[in-house]
């Protein structure tokens, strides 16, 4: 594959690179962190090929990655990996993922191009069995099962919870339909379910819009997603050795031609670029404009990249930020990471909270908080609320909080009656007597005026003011 006889830079229809899009701290690149991907298939793309520690195919169809011929089921996994951890080799480093130095483990979970619940389960089991061998710290799953079933009946979710308990952070695509509920593993309580937003290819967030990603209350009563990340105008590679790759290469070569060489390059390449024959009869200025419009129509943003959309790409972008966090502070575990991500996210104004969870991923602030975090909690040790000895215990962790109170239906929403007490482990704890059977709404009041939901409780409902009330069910 010849990649050196043409330009690799952006064209006039380029999208904002991820680091700029998120105002990310590029000091951290996921170095020393291993990210695994469960997906339909992969191609050894130049943007990440040298950092693949292991490729495994649960179906046995492809024993090795370095001799695969590109097929349609390879493109999705290749793009998700590159969006997360590509180093931009084929774009002069422009379309580089935030985890561009991370190590990679690629697990193919399709058979004849189809992904089943059984193959996802096999992939999760393989990751569980091999996580220590390859030091897997993050798993991205831009896919889902077939059935909307509760946690206690979902083998996929049980395996996901087991992985998280073992310390692996799971980022999962929410899905791309507003008309259905999240399904395994996106409805798993402990995973980081990532919905999407669109920055409309601009920097000003007052023009942002939410993507049509899956959201809402799961069959177990948990509200998803936790956060939203870019799901439109995301640069991803065109699969090498395919017709689309050749078309994009030739089309870009023509479009990037200087005026004096345009007709020569056009005549030499128009057929391979699949341009209409009538372009030949137009003047140069018209032909240049038409070729540019063809680039735009095809979503081509650089010779070997196009822009894509879907929560399939929002999730690996979140995973890349997690890799930065773990490089910045290797002591963080899955509970710490999720807590920081939701605490640093911020909601888009004028959009329902239920569609965006805690809000837009804040890459810069998440890494900053990761660096300064000094309290570390094993999975399951930081839960809220829970009942012990006829007392209901609420917990909260936020090192920047000075004073926190508990308010809810059970105390007429008094914002200064039930204080949280800070223990030596950095956990704040408040408790109330056992309540009668029923449904109770509550919030935490931080530093006197910030009313927030309980980050540790996925059961919540719209509060009517652009946020959530957390829900406590008794009996």
Report on this structure.
With 475 residues, the chain is an alpha+beta fold. 25% of the residues lie in helices and 23% in strands. The N and C termini lie far apart (65 Å). The mean pLDDT is 93.
Quick tags:
alpha+beta, 25 strands, 11 helices, 475 residues, elongated, single chain
SS elements, strand count: 25
How far apart lie the N and C ends? Answer: 65 Å
Total of DSSP H or I helical runs spanning 4+ residues: 11
Share in β-strands: 15-25%
Q: Mean of residue pLDDT?
A: 93
Overall 3D shape? elongated
Radius of gyration, CA atoms, in whole angstroms: 24 Å
Biggest sheet overview = 8 strands, mixed
> Which regions have little confidence, pLDDT < 50, spanning 5+ residues?
none
Q: Helix content range of the residues, please?
A: 25-40%
Structural class: alpha+beta
Question: What is the topological layout?
Answer:
Blueprint: H1 18-21, E1 34-39, E2 52-57, H2 75-85, E3 103-108, E4 110-111, E5 114-115, H3 117-130, E6 136-141, H4 155-165, E7 169-173, E8 192-198, E9 209-210, E10 216-217, E11 223-224, E12 227-230, E13 234-237, H5 243-255, H6 259-269, H7 284-297, E14 300-302, E15 305-308, H8 311-328, H9 334-344, H10 353-356, H11 363-372, E16 386-388, E17 391-396, E18 404-408, E19 418-419, E20 421-422, E21 428-433, E22 438-446, E23 450-452, E24 460-462, E25 468-474
Parallel strand pairs: 1-3, 1-6, 2-3, 6-7, 7-8, 8-12
Antiparallel strand pairs: 4-5, 8-9, 10-11, 13-15, 14-15, 16-17, 17-21, 18-19, 18-22, 20-21, 22-23, 22-25, 24-25
Helix pairs in contact: 2-8, 3-4, 5-6, 5-7, 8-11, 9-11
